[in-house]
Specification:
Blueprint lengths: L1 H19 L4 E3 L32 E5 L6 E13 L12 E12 L5 E3 L5 E5 L4 E2 L1 E2 L13 E3 L4 E11 L4 E7 L7 E6 L2
Parallel strand pairs: 1-12
Antiparallel strand pairs: 2-3, 3-4, 4-10, 5-9, 6-7, 6-11, 8-10, 11-12
Protein name: DUF4352 domain-containing protein
Keywords: Signal
InterPro entries: DUF4352, Immunoprotect_excell_Ig-like
Length: 191
């Protein structure tokens, strides 16, 4: 009887680990640019390292795409809230406002990054409501291209605009490669 219980426990553990080893990884920590020190035999064990802070405006997060060689360092450079339309006759709907997020996408992979970057973005408010992008030009600066073709080592920079309710407090921004279908999602806290 004990062997059956032990076998069932091991099977449950293996199934649980397999279920946790899937996709939908959300990366919220900025890239660590501090070089690691070589371990020394004379070094005493150090206390536990402090947890890395969540990524914020100005931090870069590395994400990979679905295809071999697809890799980006993604940085949220600026957030403009509220953002103003660059056209006099076009603006957010009544009861809503625009939030513009400036992304910098640096291709650190070996393949050309070919995508519509806005398709893989969203913002979330403090109530958990999520909002996708809208096509708009704002006075803050140039829009992100809708057809990025970024060779390895090069960058794309531009604003992506989101239409949100006036009362919403936007707290996070997310970016996922492959029009939102890649396994990794980068997330920044913005307030």
């Amino acid at each position: 009887m004990n062997r059956r219980i032990a076998a069932a426990a091991i099977t449950a553990l293996i199934l649980g680990l397999t279920a946790c080893n899937g996709s939908d990884e959300v990366t919220t920590k900025p890239n660590d640019t501090t070089p690691a020190a070589a371990p020394s035999k004379a070094d005493k064990p150090s206390p536990k390292p402090k947890a890395k802070k969540a990524a914020g405006i100005g931090d870069s997060i590395t994400v990979t795409g679905s295809e071999d060689g697809e890799k980006l360092d993604v940085t949220v450079k600026k957030v403009v809230d509220p953002a103003r339309s660059s056209e006099d006759v076009f603006g957010p709907e009544d009861g809503k406002r625009w939030v513009a997020v400036q992304f910098e996408l640096t291709n650190t992979g070996t393949a050309v990054y070919s995508d519509s970057p806005s398709n893989g973005t969203q913002v979330a408010d403090s109530d958990g409501q999520r909002f996708g992008p809208t096509f708009a030009d704002v006075t803050a600066g140039p829009s992100m291209t809708s057809d990025a073709q970024v060779p390895p080592g090069e960058k794309a920079l531009g604003y992506i605009v989101f239409e949100v309710p006036k009362a919403s407090k936007i707290v996070t921004v997310q970016f996922t490669m492959n029009s939102g279908y890649a396994d990794q999602t980068a997330q920044w806290k913005i307030s």
